[in-house]
Design brief:
single chain; about 900 residues; alpha+beta; Calcium-transporting ATPase, transmembrane domain; Rossmann fold; Calcium-transporting ATPase, cytoplasmic domain N; nine-stranded mixed sheet; eight-stranded mixed sheet; 30 helices; 26 strands; about 45% helix
Length: about 900
């Protein structure tokens, strides 16, 4: 494959002038590459990707199914059977091993592929020039010679030689370890500089913290500096999520408990005079049955399925651990723009000394308004084409205003070429540009009203430029406040003729105000109401004017209509040590926080976390990244969010809609609820198998189940219904319950009591059926009756996995088509085992006769009938508690309330 550097005059692009590098790469810095040339180079250089970790091979996944302690125990049982010349039994155990391995392989393979498909959803995109047009393309399509436009908040997606830069700062800690951002420029530098001092280069995976720039791609994929490092890195396995670690720990405890029970069975069975070989095989089978070895795999599949559902609702999960935390969220700190509003910004109003202009299209506006629009279009970082709009939505709205007024940015820049820019700074809330034409300097500035007014010494009026006194500033400030009360975002526009080009914020002339409308989302009010019902508090934290924030909060129902609730200003959020108890209480109670900077958002987040809240926080800017990383769940905006914010977040919203946050929280709750339900089901079934054998031995009864029957139960009647429960859609009432405690264990005391109670019911029903058969006309069918009673009892037991506040006939379990499919499959397998003579002989099953079937059907229903009665009683008790005002129903599946 051709080397990228073959285009270059040397292999050191930072040592060459920017124009020479562009020329060597045969690219036009203004037009970029043509589409056809980009495709040709893509074929030569390949995709702009680092060599990804190879997916776990099929053979490794398959081999892993046969390396566990439980499989080892089964193989010991196989060996014992062959030693005793029990050829059929040994072969049957071997079949069980292979079948168990096949099921595990299919489940794990599907889970792995599902996770890989989810990762593919988060495709990075880059702004480039192609055929003279600004376009957003997948970063993997970048090729050497592409001209890339960058700005603060971007993550660099290839190695770039800068052609131009304005106030550009890059955080290169990922490559150099240097924690402070590095200032960038476009001039050539000495050849021998180390990477950390190559200030005219941008490197893949570094982050831009402010400013704007344009660069030409000099290396992609594995040819980048990061790619060369990646070649040296030894592949590492992905770490487990906290949830997976807890499940693994639970599995280990169950293994040791099962081994202890098996040892007891061996000692008790031999002491009772049972066949030692049979007792050992039974003990091994019990050990295998007692441990739900499919637990981590089913959990992974459930997590992947939940993440896929979230993706369908436009929420992409970056970190799987966030799924569990989402279900415990008690508070959302949300931005306003694009989340509670539509982010379809349009200019509704211009205010100049000539008065207000509310016309659209904006043709024929007055001279003052025209000058204002010119300045707004010049002081702009967005790009507007017939096909696309790239840049900040406010800038895009201003460009559209210019188009309607006949003032196109490209034409204006031809008349007034830009020579200097101060990129927008969220701390100062200002942006400025300087332009030169015929030796004359023109400065254009835009920003928040309270930020621009102090910089203005004059105002443009019909009679010319007049000095701006304090009274005049007060009038403009009052006008801005009035527009904000109408729910408009308000910008002040100013300019200056003459003066130094590098000092933008001095001696400005105020041109007027721009009112920009961003209507509330139609679904925001319902989403906020859903949060309220779910026990989740929502706080709006915005950089907008307090009056704008209050108006929007009322429109979406966050503040009741007519409420005079105070809006807290960001300036009030100081460090925690400086807060008085009264200030702390005021901040914790605030529903709307306005004019908040990123640092103040971070402080507010820490304040609520210190108060015991589990906080989900939204953000979009590069300065939001620290807060997104620190939040319990960081949620980045996918449409308007910066790359840095998306990298720092746990969840990325593709549509920026608040409804997607609510759905993400619902899915987080559903996943934890499903995990808890299928674990309760699995463990109660497994413990019933252990209980049947153990209690029978303690009572001196014959062995109620034979080894292969136990293994059949474990393989057939546990796994498929449990998997179906783990993939359920969830209870519709999920979002009308309070969030679970963040530190609550997956299985608390209440769940363990439920598991024990259900296991006792299944055990008692099977043993009573055995006792009646032993004392009936056909005692030789006792083992078969016990087996069938326990098998069918476990299958019907799946209906006990509903919550206390759901109906008997209509609930998440009965609506789950996978549950019905699992039941049909399992019942069919049980009947086949009984009906195929060869299989029945290996499992030591006999035809039970009609009396036996009556016993089986009657006692297999005991657990589900008693369980349903118990759930109904608990449901009535919960409803009485709610009616009395002392609490609310908190059903969480399996007839339980959450721990």
């Amino acid at each position: 494959m051709t080397s990228t550097s073959s285009f270059l005059p040397s292999e050191i692009p930072w040592g060459e002038p920017a124009g020479a590098v562009a020329a060597a790469l045969r690219t036009d810095p203004i037009q970029g590459l043509t589409g056809s040339e980009a495709l040709r180079r893509l074929a030569v250089y390949g995709l702009n990707q680092l060599r990804a970790r190879s997916p776990r091979s099929i053979w490794k996944v398959l081999l892993a199914q046969f390396t566990s302690l439980l499989v080892g125990l089964l193989l010991v049982g196989t060996g014992l059977a062959f030693l005793a010349r029990e050829w059929e039994e040994g072969a049957a155990i071997l079949v069980v091993v292979l079948a168990n391995g096949a099921i595990g392989f299919v489940m794990e393979f599907r889970a792995a592929r599902a996770m890989e498909a989810l990762r593919a959803l988060g495709v990075a995109r880059t702004t480039v020039l192609r055929d003279g047009q600004v376009a957003r393309i997948p970063a993997e399509s970048l090729v050497p010679g592409d001209v890339v436009l960058v700005e603060g908040g971007d993550v660099v997606t290839a190695d770039l030689r800068l052609l131009e830069a304005s106030k550009l700062l890059a955080s290169e800690a990922a490559l150099t370890g240097e924690s402070l951002p590095v200032a960038k420029h476009s001039a050539a530098i000495p050849v021998g500089r180390p990477l950390a001092e190559r200030s005219n280069m941008l490197y893949k995976a570094t982050a831009l913290t402010r400013g704007t720039g344009r660069g030409v791609v000099v290396a992609t994929g594995m040819r980048t500096e990061l790619g060369q490092i990646a070649e040296l890195v030894v592949e590492a396995e992905e770490g487990e999520t906290p949830l997976e670690r807890r499940l693994t720990g639970l599995g280990r405890r169950l293994v040791w408990s099962a081994l202890g029970i098996s040892l007891f069975v061996i000692v008790a069975g031999v002491a009772k005079g049972e066949d030692p070989f049979l007792v050992v095989e039974t003990a091994i089978a019990l050990a295998v049955a007692a441990v739900p070895e499919g637990l981590p795999i089913i959990a992974t599949i459930a997590l992947a399925r939940g993440m896929q559902r979230m993706a369908r609702h436009d929420a992409i999960v970056n970190r799987m651990a966030a799924m569990e935390t989402l279900g415990a969220a008690t508070m959302i700190l949300t931005d306003k723009t694009g989340t509670l509003t539509e982010n379809r910004l349009s200019v509704r109003l211009l205010v100049t000394s000539e008065g207000e202009a509310r016309s659209s299209p904006w043709q024929g506006v007055g001279e003052r308004a025209r000058r204002l629009v010119e300045a707004a279009v010049l002081c702009n970082d967005a790009a507007l084409t017939e096909r696309d709009a790239v840049g900040d939505p406010i800038d895009v709205a201003l460009l559209r205003l210019g188009v309607e007024a006949g003032l196109h940015r490209a034409a204006l820049l031809e008349r007034w070429p830009e020579v200097h820019e101060e990129a927008f700074d969220p701390e100062t809330r200002l942006m400025g540009t300087a332009h030169v034409a015929g030796g004359e300097i023109r400065v254009a500035v835009k920003g928040a009203v309270e930020a621009v007014l102090p910089l203005c010494v004059a105002a443009a009026t019909e009679a010319g430029v007049h000095r701006l006194e304090e009274v005049g500033r007060g009038a403009w400030r009052a006008q801005g406040d009035e527009l904000a009360r109408q729910g408009l975002r308000v910008l002040a526009i100013a300019d200056r003729r003459g003066g130094p080009a590098d000092q933008l914020y001095h001696d400005l002339t105020l041109l007027g105000l721009v009112g920009i409308a961003d209507p509330p989302r139609a679904d925001a009010a319902d989403a906020l109401l859903a949060c309220q019902r779910a026990g989740i508090r929502v706080v709006m934290v915005t950089g907008d004017h307090p009056a704008t924030a209050r108006t929007i909060a009322r429109q979406v129902g966050l503040l009741p209509e007519g409420s005079e609730s105070e809006v807290v200003l960001g300036d009030e959020i100081t460090g925690p040590e400086a807060l008085s108890p009264r200030q702390r209480k005021r901040l914790l109670a605030a529903t709307v926080v306005a004019r908040a900077s990123p640092l103040q958002k971070l402080r507010l987040l820490a304040l609520h976390q210190g108060n015991g809240e589990v906080v989900a926080m939204t953000g979009d800017g590069v300065n939001d990244a620290p807060a997104l990383a620190r939040a319990d769940v960081g949620i980045a905006m996918g449409e308007r969010g910066t790359d840095v914010a998306r990298e720092a977040a746990d969840v990325v919203l593709r549509t920026d809609a608040f409804t997607a946050i609510v759905e993400a929280i619902r899915q987080g709750r559903v996943i934890v609820q499903n995990l808890r339900v299928f674990i309760v089901y699995l463990l109660s079934c497994n413990l019933s198998e252990v209980g049947v054998v153990t209690v029978a031995l303690l009572l001196g009864a014959p062995l109620p189940l034979l080894p292969l029957q136990i293994l059949f139960l474990n393989l057939v009647t546990d796994v498929f219904p449990a998997l179906a429960l783990g993939l359920g859609e969830g209870d519709p009432s999920t979002l009308v319950r309070p969030p679970r405690r963040a530190r609550a264990p997956l299985l608390g005391p209440r769940q363990w009591r439920t598991i024990s109670a259900y296991a006792a019911l299944l055990t008692a029903a099977a043993l009573i059926a055995q006792w009646l058969t032993l004392h009936g006309p056909r005692p030789e069918t006792a083992s078969t009756i016990t087996f069938l009673t326990l098998a069918l009892g476990q299958l019907w037991h799946v209906f006990n996995m509903r919550s206390v506040d759901s109906g008997i006939l209509r609930n998440p379990v009965t609506r789950n088509r996978l549950v019905w499919a699992a039941l049909a499959l399992c019942v069919g397998l049980v009947l086949l085992a009984l009906g195929i003579p060869a299989v029945a002989r290996i499992l030591a099953l006999r035809q039970p006769g009609w009396q036996g079937w009556l016993t089986v059907l009657g006692f297999s229903l005991v657990a589900v009938l008693v369980g349903q009665a118990g759930i109904q009683l608990r449901g009535r008790r919960s409803r009485r508690v709610v009616a009395s005002g002392e609490g609310r129903a908190m059903g969480d599946g399996a007839g339980m309330r959450p721990a």
